[in-house]
Structure formats: C-alpha cells, structure tokens
Design brief:
The complex is a heterodimer. By secondary structure, chain A is an all-alpha fold. The termini of chain A are far apart. In chain A, helix 7 runs antiparallel to helix 8 and helix 8 packs across helix 10. Chain A has ten helices and two strands. By secondary structure, chain B is an all-alpha fold. In chain B, helix 2 packs across helix 4, helix 4 crosses helix 8 and helix 7 packs across helix 9. The chains are: A mainly alpha, B mainly alpha. At the A-B interface, helix 1, helix 2, helix 7, helix 8 and helix 9 of A face helix 2, helix 3, helix 4, helix 6 and helix 7 of B.
Chain lengths: ~260, ~180
C-alpha cells in the first residue's frame, strides 16, 4: 500500500468516525438569538458614581434573582435547606430565605408542568464552621477598580444562586433548559474573568477554573440525559468544596467595601 | 441580498438578517466544530458561541476577507479554547468526564484502528491537527486554511503533511500487528 492509499485509508476512517450529525439549527439559533439580540445593555458603575453600598447591593440583588430562578424552576415538592443564620457568611445572609417547605398540594406555576422530584440547596460542607475571609484576596480585590469588583460580586452571587438551585434529581426539560442557559451565560463570564485582572489572584483564579469546569457541565445538562450527570456535578461540587469557596469569595469581595 | 447588506442590517439590530447569515454559514461552522471535537454537544456549544462572538464583533469586521473565512477563524479559536478547557477538565474532574465515555468491550480490527487513529489525531500538536481536520476531513483548500489561520499556504501544506506522516505511522503499526 503506497503513501496515497494510506492517506486515503486514514482520511476515510477518520471522516467516518467524525461524521457530523444533522445540526440542530433552530435550537442553536434560539440560543444565539437570545444571547446576541436579547441582551440588555450592561450599565457599568463609574468610579465617581460608586458608593460603598453598590457592590453589596448588586450582590444582594443578584442573589435574589438567583433564588427567584431557583424557585421558578423548582417543582411542586421543594425542600429548601438554608444554612443556619448564625453561621452564614455575611454576604450570603443578604439574600437568604427563611427555611420553608412548600406543601405537596401547592399548585405549580402555570407555565411549568408538575414535577415529581425534589430540588435541594447544596448546603456547603463547612460553611457552618465560621471560615474567615482570605486577607490576601481581600487586599487583592481592594486594588481592583469599582467596576471590576461589582462585576465580580455580581458574578459570584449569580453563580452561588445557580449552584444552590441545582436540582438533586432529574429535572424537567423546562427547568433544565433554564438552568443550562443561565450556566452558559455564567460560563462566558467565567472565561472573561479568567482573562481579566481579577483572574490574576491565585485564589480567585483557582476558584474560577473550578467554576468554569462545573458550569460547563451544568450548561450541558439536558433533560433527556440520565441522572448520572447531576450526581457527578454534585460530587464534584462537594469534592472540591466549590460552593463554600464561592461564598468565601463573595465575602472577600464584599469585605473590600 | 448581499452579505454586506445583511451585515449592515444585523448591526442595526435586525435579527431576521442575523438568521439569514446564520442559515448561510451555520451548517459549515457546525461541521467544522464537530470534526474538530467529535462531540455533538460541544460542537453545538462552540457553534453557538462562535456566532454570538461574531455578532458581538461584527461592527469590527472590515470585510477585507469573506465573512465565512472570518467566521471560521472565530470557530477554530472557540473550539480550541473549548478543547483546552475540556483538557483541564479531564485532568481534574476525571470521574466526571470518563464515567460515561468508557467504550464497550469491542476489539474488532476496525474499531481498534479507528480508536488508535483517533487517539493519534488527538495527540497531534494542535496546529497540525487543525490543519489536517480542515484539509483532509472538511475539504478546505490550503489557500482557505492559510487565510483562516493567518498562516502562509506553505505552512498549511507542511502541517497537513506532518499530521499525515504521524497518522501513517500509527496505521502501519496497527497493520503490522
């Protein structure tokens, strides 16, 4: 067999192995259209407009949105376990909701079909151990400009809310889709932050890298997939203490104001 | 309707024009993304990210090259970034990545050949792999690759030839067993 024939065999084998399926054009366009044309212009806080309350206020608002998102995608039977109020880091207390259990008989939102599984907030394994903010990171964050700190705080709050709202079981197409789209947006922000000044702090960089990996998995969640994906995501979150580190970083970013 | 006209409409916020541009280019972009990733989900994400990036940067597109070339350049960049991210992922979240990816116990010759060639392709330096996939699997000309990757045409030829040489070694090793 000469070189040309060998090349052809290789080409044929790999072309077959990598034969593209039919592209889901409409589905992809829906995502692109939403991200490219429906985005609200970002209003950046100018340094001379910023006050010491802006960053925590943004973080609190974003956490509220996240909790709202979690409730929206939550099914009829929701058990929300909140971290004990006495030990939650200051920045997360802002948007903590009181522990509550929605009765099984409460009606589901009209837009969502009834769901038979339970969502639970991932209680961080050591969030109750009174962790202290990292002084080096606080020093680093305090050197960032106000706009960058605001972006970071908003990003952390939204990410914490999303991860906390992750379903523990298999979700509906609607809920998985909402979570996946939101995770995709946060993933893009993660990439931007990794390349930004904020990504040069070793602690924040490691956290952003871990979040990048977890968010990439969450963004790929599809209702048609098995529950294994979610289990693996939860396992990774636990193994790498991701959520407590997000809470810590939220505190550290907030502590600079 | 010319592409320049569609671009102008997209810049004015016309999403229908955006859809027309998308329809014209998405199949090729998706094919390239899939050929490079061999992963349906990742190819879809990369296609989406590439178009979102393209629309965001459209005002900076000077139309010195064809829109397709520019778009494919963004696609290659997006895919490589995603693959690097996935590599980091694989190294650190091994349990997540490989739990569902362990192949069935099938040791037929074709399967082994494909697996070895795939592995060899994945292990090629990025620059060789991209050129090989674009040229041999997706049928780009060396001129098109050169323009997309912003390299001389001769460099494209060299990279494809180097990739083929490495893959031929693997093929020969499998055949000799």
């Amino acid at each position: 067999m000469d070189e040309t024939e060998l090349n052809e065999t290789i080409r044929r084998t790999l072309a077959e192995s990598r034969r593209p399926p039919e592209p889901p054009l409409d589905e992809m366009w829906a995502n692109i259209e939403q991200r490219a044309f429906d985005t609200v212009p970002v209003v950046r806080i100018r340094p001379w407009q910023a006050s010491r309350w802006h960053v925590p206020a943004i973080a609190a608002a974003a956490l509220c949105i996240g909790v709202g998102l979690g409730r929206y995608v939550a099914p009829q039977r929701v058990v929300v376990r909140t971290v004990a109020a006495t030990s939650v880091p200051a920045a997360t207390k802002v948007a903590s909701v009181p522990p509550r259990t929605v009765p099984d008989s409460s009606p589901a939102p009209a837009a969502l079909p009834p769901v038979a599984h339970t969502y639970a907030v991932n209680t961080p394994s050591h969030a109750t151990q009174g962790r202290q903010p990292d002084a080096a990171t606080i020093r680093f964050v305090s050197q960032l400009d106000v706009g960058a700190r605001g972006d970071m705080a908003r990003y952390l709050a939204q990410t914490a809310a999303l991860l906390a709202a992750l379903p523990s079981g298999h979700g509906t197409a609607a809920s998985d889709s909402v979570i996946a789209v939101h995770a995709g947006e946060l993933l893009t922000q993660t990439h931007l932050l990794l390349d930004s000044q904020a990504g040069s702090d070793p602690t924040l960089h490691r956290l952003l890298e871990d979040l990048e990996l977890v968010l990439a998995q969450v963004a790929r969640l599809r209702a048609t997939r098995g529950g294994t994906d979610l289990q693996l995501i939860h396992q990774a979150l636990t193994t790498h203490d991701v959520l407590p580190r997000v809470y810590d970083a939220t505190v550290e970013v907030g502590a600079t104001d | 309707v010319s592409e320049a006209h569609l671009i102008a409409r997209v810049l004015a916020g016309d999403r229908i024009a955006g859809r027309e541009l998308y329809d014209a280019h998405a199949p090729r972009v998706y094919r390239l993304a899939f050929r490079m990733t061999r992963d349906e989900e990742l190819a879809r994400e990369c296609t989406q990210d590439a178009f979102v990036t393209a629309f965001a940067k459209l005002s900076g597109f000077r139309q010195e090259s064809a829109l397709g070339t520019w778009l494919h350049r963004i696609t290659v960049s997006t895919v490589l970034q995603a693959l690097r991210s996935r590599k980091r992922h694989a190294a650190r979240f091994v349990e997540m990545e490989f739990a569902a990816a362990i192949p069935a116990d099938d040791a037929s010759g074709d399967v082994e050949l494909t697996a070895r060639l795939e592995r060899a392709l994945e292990e090629l330096p990025e620059m060789y792999r991209v050129a090989f996939v674009m040229h041999d699997l997706e049928g780009y000309t060396h001129a098109a690759i050169a323009e997309t990757l912003a390299i001389p045409e001769g460099t494209s030829k060299t990279r494809v030839a180097s990739a083929r040489a490495r893959l031929r070694e693997v093929l020969a090793a499998v055949r000799d067993r």
